[in-house]
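Sharing a chain and its predicted structure for anyone who wants a worked example. Both blocks are below, sequence first, tokens second.
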Amino acid sequence: MNAAPSAMLLDPALDNECINTLRFLSVDAVQKADSGHPGMPMGAASMAYVLWTRFLKHSPANPGWFDRDRFVLSPGHGSMLLYSLLHLTGYDLSLEQIKRFRQWGSMTPGHPERGVTPGVETTTGPLGQGFGNGVGLAMAEAHLAARYNRPGAEIVNHFTYGIVSDGDLMEGVSSEAASLAGHLKLGKLIYVYDDNRVTLSAGTDITFTEDRARRFEAYGWHVQSVADGNDLVAIDAALHAARAETQRPSLILARTHIGYGAPDKQDSFESHGSPLGVDEMRLAKQNLGWPTEPLFHIPKKAGEHFRKAVERGKAAETEWNDRFSAYSRAFPDLARALHHVMHGELPDGWDRDIPVFPADEKGMATRVAAGKVMNAVAPRLQALIGGSADLNPSTHTALSGLGDFEPAGVTVPDKQGAVDGVWSYAGRNIYFGVREHGMGAILNGLAAHGGTVPFGATFLIFSDYMRPPIRLAAMMKLHVVYVFTHDSIALGQDGSTHQPVEQLAGLRAVPGLTVIRPGDANETSVAWRVALEAGDHPVALILTRQNVPTLDRTQCAAADGLRQGAYVLADAPNGKPDVILIASGSEVELVMAARKSLQERNVMARVVSMPSWDLFDAQPRSYRDEVLLPSIRARLSVEAGASQGWHRYIGDRGDVLGVDRFGASAPGDVVMREYGFTAENVCRRVLAMLE
């Protein structure tokens, strides 16, 4: 059962009543809150009604049913349209919550938020992000279908629908995501474009006059135009045609009118970001034949018609459950694996092959160690999928032998031009191209869909391009893993444009994002364990380009101490340090060398490896005091990044060796030396403190 039945205008009067119910439930909520965006729900109500009552496969009684269609409202400012749809179709969202729109503690925040409102798939509002999320949702469906469906047993089979706006199409992230979606031929991705030609401050005629249809055709999309967004027959036909197109994602350009029905504010930016006002609201209702009283009016027939979604959803879910039972009998191993990924479970023995690296003074880059860990884990952890922004050779994030996520049937030539494989959606290596912003939004969609643990990789400096989706991943508590390599000025000759300085501090400032900068190969192994066990929040791994020694763990503490965020790596021989040296990442080897030099000068130092502030701050105060010893006032933190934030760990008598200016183009060891990252300079700073 792939969709609700498409009842073509059997009762035009009822259709009109239902559409106006959507419009004015939204308008009344915005007016009561004296805050919000009434225009978009008024203009887009007709096409939303057709989609939700005739096409969308969903189960209001069970919003998390796995094989539901996904719906994304990318212009999140029109949130009241989505809340009205959810309430009317029977989700656990009461009329009282509609009346409490935008109020403290309500389930109806100003923009849709995943986890707050039942039925909201993804947090939208920052324009373009929902567009990218939808691409990720469609990629997840395609991947899981390719991996788990079998002939006659299509257990994963659903569409991703969305409403997108002028603002979404203007933001650059939508261009990145649309380009990749077209290349990937995501035929089950269908967007309806609310082409009302008005933004918050003006009409699009002064900013956005490109041919949007031809633009998306150039991306490889199936494009249709509907001249009147209130033409239910045309919207219905366009959605049917979009569903029939299996080789291209679809964009339906529907010409709508923002603030439809409001005599003075229709087609005006004044209905975009402000309530209509009592008088204009009354006139709009009169204009469309709607009673001015009572507010929040839901006619009985309209309510009953919308609520049919509950029984349709239960029937679709029951039918799917029966199919899954038959699938489990026919393919027990596949069913067991699919059950694990659907529920976000780590299978038994998933970490059995994670390497323990031998002590090695030369060592390896933590990016290389991370790649080895990923490839040890991936065969057992089928949910792991991802890729880089065209940087696999540098980030070491390719999953060997696990295929490339590409349209089915496309052959792959090897270096000699011979065909050595066939691409398909079952592949687990995603080539995002040079599209960090789009990659971030797509990763969120992959994670929000369920069934995948997505990762994305790039250089740390380019995390700047990903900040909006990283923030949203943390807000939504999505399990996304970011692999950021080339983590400091030590990357060298590419120079200041590629040497991160403030990026690490910026990532640490994101609430709910766990940032880990491991100090050697074995800390990297533990970091990946922590990242994959996270489950309900994103994790950023910060990795080196250059080699760092693999520490001899028989001479210092075990790397598992990383789980606490910071731990005593090596202590003063007498257990009574004069100074505490704190470092992360590649600077751990530096302070270990300084500890040895200080000991020769009869200064006893404790070395604390602190790969993660977030994990450390979550520990009990007793543990934190045990590591940092409040009685020791002489503390020095050493990290090749901005000093911002370190003072909370070193106190008012401590010192910070960091980087508070941009880098320089020179070999990495030269840059580090010139910026003071030497054992000798660490010793000088310590002796100055002690004096």
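Comments welcome. The domain at 16-258+268-316 is CATH 3.40.50.970 (Rossmann fold).
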